[in-house]
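Async update (no meeting this week)

Hi team, since we skipped the sync, here's where things stand on the single-chain job. The sequence we agreed to prioritize is pasted below, unchanged from the tracker. I ran it this morning and attached the output directly underneath so nobody has to dig for it. Comments welcome in thread, and please keep replies under the output.
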Amino acid sequence: MVTEADQLRRLVRARAAVFCLFASFGLVTATWAVHLPSVKQTTGISTSLLGVILLMLGAGALVGMQVSGKLVDRFGSGPVGVLGVAGMALALLVPLAAGTWPWAAAGAVLLGFATGTAEVGMNAAAVDVERDYGRPIMAAFHAVFSIGTVLGALLGAAGFALAAGVFATGLVIAVIALVVVGLAAVILLRRRTPSSSAQAEDAEFGDDDAPPRRRVVILGVLAFLLLMAEGSAMDWSSLHAQQHLGASPSIGSLALGGFVAAMTVVRFTIDRIVERVGPVQVVRWCASTAAAGFAIVMASPFLALTLVGWVVVGLGLSGGVPQVFTAAGNVGGGSGRVLSRVVGTGYLAVLAGPGVIGWLADCVSLNTAFALPLCGVLICAGMARAVAPRR
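Output:
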């Protein structure tokens, strides 16, 4: 006989297993980012060819997301998440070992495909565990991802300091990630999740109070705009402090550090707020806070106030994306295909958003270009009702 205490222990173990997936995902992602300059140097390619490699990684990720959505509906979220993150750890070694551009490009496509698979699989697993918990816990998973990226960056820096070599460092990190994923697999591969073709059909043709396809489109727009704003802050905050206010590179990096730190810390606490006031209010007020942060950054003539503005942006963007992914994962009772579409749309913003900011910066200025993410998050505040739980 299964007691309530046994069920609680199983839920806690499942949550810990999904934490392992998110941490490993962040670890591998940061390792790839830290070693990009080394890949460029080893292969002897130009900056433009390195950009092509990044586009190929993005294309592989988009394909992986669409494939993994169908796999989640057929085999469950746990196996797909485990397979995707383990695949990332192994695929990472291919471009890091590359000596030529074609080899690096092929490795980037493999890494991208695994990344897309992992992105959908682990978020679907998080939705499943959150549904069984009966209360919001999604933001904490994304906070653990942020911690994984910090650890990956620190381990990469340690590898450089010890002159360990790019491939050797990548191999160590891949082994660590595989061990952590193995621990998660012991739990998640035994866990039964309600992912079936019948659910997928319900997600396409549910009887919510709004047409399901329309709701999926709105959730996709929310994901796109929120991740565009997040990507813009990640890629351009440090440079903005240097170009617009004359900060040194070390001081300018505080803009990015403040943004990331604020977003990570709040994601460990935002779930309790969602439980009390609901996801709609969280998305609405978080998006409004992010807009206020961008406004401070654009209007501030002082470096200290600008740094405060980036912290406010981080506070605001901390709660939106987890609520959008939770809503997408529960459309029609739960469908990997629906989640993959929303995640894929958001990923397009990660790829294209910072580039659009750079183009606008050339046309006007980097400071003025931040009007784009500011308007985007204001639109999200107005569309917040889309994340309301449906029966």
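Quick observations from my side:
The chain has a mean pLDDT of 87.
The chain has two domains: 4-195, 202-387.
Reply here if anything looks off.
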